[in-house]
Amino acid sequence: MSDYLLDIRDLKLAFKNYAGLVEVLHGISLNIRRGEKVALVGESGSGKSVTARIILGLLQELSSARISGSVHFEGQDLEALALRTRLALRGTKISMIFQDPTSSLNPVYTIGVQFNEVLKRGNPGILERDAGTRAVSLLQDVSIPEPERVLASYPFQLSGGMNQRVMIAMALANEPSLLIADEPGTALDVTVQAQTLHLMRDLVERRGTSVLFISHNLGVVREFADRVYVIYKGRLVEHGETSELFHRPRHPYTRALMAAVPRITGGGIPEIAENSSGFTEPLIDHEVSP
Amino acid sequence: MRRTFSILLSNPLSVIGLILVGTVVFSALFADFIAPFPSHRGAVVDFSNFNQPPHWPNIFGTDLVGRDVFSRILYAYRISLMLGVVVLAIAVPIGVTVGLAAGYLGGWADFILMRLTDVFLSIPPLVLAMSVMGVLEPTLTNGMLAVTTMWWPWYARLVYNVTRSEAQEGYVLAAEIIGASRWHIMFREILPNCVPSIVTKMTLDLGFVILIASSLSFLGLGVQAPTPDLGSMVAEGGNYLPDSWWLTVFPSLAILIAVFGFNLLGDALRQILGSDQ
């Protein structure tokens, strides 16, 4: 258990509304080792993003959320931690990257000011000047030319790809042990997305940061992740090493998901059944039953 | 900043607004130097030269006790502007805090604060101000208090709406995720994004506060004699229309200029700040 950085067991989530309880997650268990890149793949509304929010402890604050199961981070049960300790993890040990980099930066502050705040979060006593030099070197790490100019710019003056790099640099600024990437770069075009993903992979590999990569893009997942979990309607349906899972998908839903990717060589948009009884078959775990 | 000014100067209407506002503020600030008869702002009597139509040196004529109308208008501007600034200086922080809290915190805070705001908005403003002035003494301070009580809900509602939409933005979620406090998110992240709307409304409102304050003193509930006030000057002069027309026309024009100027400037700001987003 201690060799897992993040260990989620039988996590269930339901939202309470006027009509009663709406179940969103039906008991998912996943884990991430140190330095490992794990992908969580599924369609919209399958429960990918709420899982990330539970790890960060954002949903726990919501009075309508009913959560059961356990989330262990670095061997500690997050539920058992005091609120203050749990809050202290955010932005220091755990950080996150979002879909739309441009809206994730506040338009009224320069990148430099926002970078400074991120660095202060990790090291409250940091000097203005030291923060400046650190920000410059972090921006150089994500291959940003003229980091000084970027630090003096407002987010809307930079391109989406630039903002994405800035976000990556900020997310890794405090050397987190876990990076949650929620469909990073979905709002960007494909070439820029590929560049930033390469960059991100290099950076996390060099620093040994674990990544939980949330996506619906199978191509990206295949290139990026070591292991893949496939989630469908709040249940994990298949889990395995990336190459193993992509070469021999065994669950009907995973197969359907792979068939759903349009080919660049043509052949039209694939026909996929909206609902198939096979999709709800139980979890197939390649590591447990090869 | 330079860009803001160049846009401001490219539109003739906003130039007029800027000039009018500039004139009003300038005459209020330097009334002591511009006014030909500075002592006439108080209880001065000069029966040798009373109720005279415009002539040199009394270019706007003299009132019923022989005081220079022009000098009194300059000092009345000073009172009106001060009232406007003080009212907004109190009303805006209250309204902004209520709006931010209701918009960002949501739930019960939203319900209680915004329904309270609705209650204030449902009372006709002049009636509320009149009743406050009626219960308390009709002094300048109470006048400001009365106008303030009816003004903050508009800011609460404005900021509430902007906050609701800004709270959906990614940067708010990002701030929550790195563990920023609610206080930080409300005042450091969301508030700066509300500033354009607030500044625009404040400029527009300065004109309206002056108008409301004049209405109150027109009804005899505002600034009391002998302090010069545009509203009470219009009210007094109204009894002597049309013969002593200068007693009413010049203070009325003074109100018009101030309100019109702030409105044009506010509209110009709205266009400039709106196009930024």
UniProtKB/TrEMBL annotation, chain A:
Chief place where the protein resides: membrane
Alphabetically ordered keywords of this record: ATP-binding, Cell membrane, Membrane, Nucleotide-binding, Transport
Family annotation (SUPFAM superfamilies): P-loop containing nucleoside triphosphate hydrolases
Pfam families (alphabetical): ABC_tran, oligo_HPY
Xref: InterPro entries: AAA+_ATPase, ABC_Ni/Peptide_Import, ABC_transporter-like_ATP-bd, Oligopep_ABC_C, P-loop_NTPase
Membrane disposition: Peripheral membrane protein
Subcellular location, record wording: Cell inner membrane
Gene3D superfamilies per record: P-loop containing nucleotide triphosphate hydrolases (3.40.50.300)
Keyword DNA-binding listed: no
GO molecular function: ATP binding
Keyword ATP-binding recorded: yes
ABC transporter domain: residues covered: 8-258
Family listed: Belongs to the ABC transporter superfamily.
Listed name of the protein: ABC transporter ATP-binding protein
From TrEMBL, chain B:
Keyword Methyltransferase part of the UniProt annotation: no
Chief site of localization: membrane
The keyword Signal belongs to this UniProt entry's keyword annotation: no
Segments forming domain ABC transmembrane type-1: 77-266
Residue ranges crossing the lipid bilayer per the database entry: 12-31, 81-106, 206-225, 245-265
Family: Belongs to the binding-protein-dependent transport system permease family.
Full protein name: ABC transporter permease
